[in-house]
Amino acid sequence: MRRLWNHINSKLFYKMLIIYSLLTVIPLALVTGLFYYRSMQIIETKIRESSKQNIVETSDKLDEMLNSIDQKAKNISIQREVEALLRNSNDSTLYPLSDLDQRVYQSEVRSLLDREREAYGLIDSIYIFNNSGDMYTSTNASGSESDNALAGIAHLTPGHMIWAPFIDQGRMISAMEIYDQRSGIKYGLLAITLSTKGMSEALASYKQGAFFITNLNGLILASTDEAQINTLYKSLGAGQSIINKRTSIYSSYNYISHMPKNAFGKEIRELAYYAVLITVITWLGVLVLTIGILRHITSPLLRLNRLMRKAERQIFETISGIHTTDEIAQICRSYNSLITQMKNLIEKVYKVELVKKEAELSAIKAHINPHFLYNTLESISIMAKESGFDSVPKTVQLLSKILRFSIAPGLDYVPLETEITFAVYYLQLHQQRYHDKIQWETDIAEELLMIHVPKLLLQPIIENAVIHGIQQTDRQGWISIRAYEYQYDLVLEVEDNGPGYKSDDSYRSEGLGTGLATVNQRIQLLYGETYGLTIKKTDAGMGTVVRVTIPMQFMEEELACEL
């Protein structure tokens, strides 16, 4: 896995492909998810409103049925044949009936109960009990399991149908005490049960297990799922289903409907699957298009990468076939320009190296000849000394040291101390000619002596001071050489007491230009145009000050030079 990641991470094509894929998939996934979530909210809201309306309509319908059953029960209780049988059973002396009359009335009561049951399909059985415990029922009615309990609940509200909080053989049951309208004495009990088939038809608008009729304790008395009757109601929870509850007006029953959310989420899930399918197809289309675009973009970069690797091996090739003007094309053209310049520079450096080699050979040859000059000057010094000319040997020795220092190979920079020593030698050489007319002084801090400066920096300036300064005056001349630090730069000053320069055109006026201009040009080539040489009159108006400014650079190692 790590190797695969390293391979992907090393390829721009794969990284851009992943980025483009994420930029496509993430928005599509967000849109699909938001669409699914919002659709679920809207549909759930609609279903909640619809389910509330449904349970209101269903509860009103059920209450209407319960009320109609109450009216039927009251109507049955006042029928002539019912009153005759119940009065006789309660007081046969006051209301005597022959056996034939009893059989006739019993048959009429049965027919009455059958008519009422058939006229209202919701009714399963009708029972009439007298005070003696005798029971008159409709045809094919099963027995009652809860006679005593029915008598107890019916007595709670005399003259009205009371619906039992329990079931009788899987049926909802109600009971009502029957009173003699003449005497007001209770002489019977009327019970009516509802058929499970009739209840199923009444609740047909609900799916199985979606509607319940319970007592106050949660016992299920009727349901669209008959298997749950006579069990305790258990809610699925508000998070899993939509629950609506309503209490009956004519009984102590609760009407409860619930709809599992997964029941109405099927269509949304199908829509979500369709959206996911569209997302995948769209992503695949974008992926194919992205691969084509990325290959078009990265192809020049891959070619450029291969050519740059070749350039590392000093195989310089330019990239071709770039016809666009975008950033990648600009990079490719810049690379071609860089390669071309590198080829030119390599060719120039090669030529310079050849010239340098030739110059080194010439320098070696030229270095041999000065030894004849040194030896010849030494011979002249010995001969002059033997002949009694004491000033000649000293002059020759100074000239020999100056020549040896000026042509010594391999020393482009020297310590300031060495440069000052060479300048003093040069002044001593001139002193042999001018004697006491020329004097000098040096003012240099000890910590500046090891700063390295270009070789032969001061000689042209001192020569200019002697020729254009001291030589042009009749009074005794002097030259001051100073060195100090100013704003982290080294400042060298050569001051003379000659007549001074005649123009404000710096060192280029009246023949002062050749040597000093060369010094200035050399400094700027070495250190940049911010450094160089300036020339001005002294504050007294007589004499000249030449100032040189260069950066302070200490020697990395001590350089030695024979003087």
What's the number of helices? 12
- Architecture per CATH nomenclature, i.e. the level-2 architecture of the largest domain: 2-Layer Sandwich
Q: Would you identify the regions where 5 or more consecutive residues have pLDDT less than 50? A: 363-369, 504-512, 557-562
- Biggest sheet strand order reads 2-1-5-4-3
Note the main sheet. Answer: 5 strands, antiparallel
* The CATH homology group name of the largest domain: PAS domain
Strand content: 15-25%
SSE order, one letter for each helix or strand? HHHHEEHEEEHEEEEHHHEHEEHEEHEE
User: Which structural category do the helix and sheet elements fall into?
Assistant: alpha+beta
Mean pLDDT: 80
Radius of gyration, CA atoms, in whole angstroms:
63 Å
What would CATH call the class of the largest domain? Alpha Beta
Number of spatially distinct domains: 3
Helix content: 40-55%
The shape, in one word, is rod-shaped
Number of strands: 16
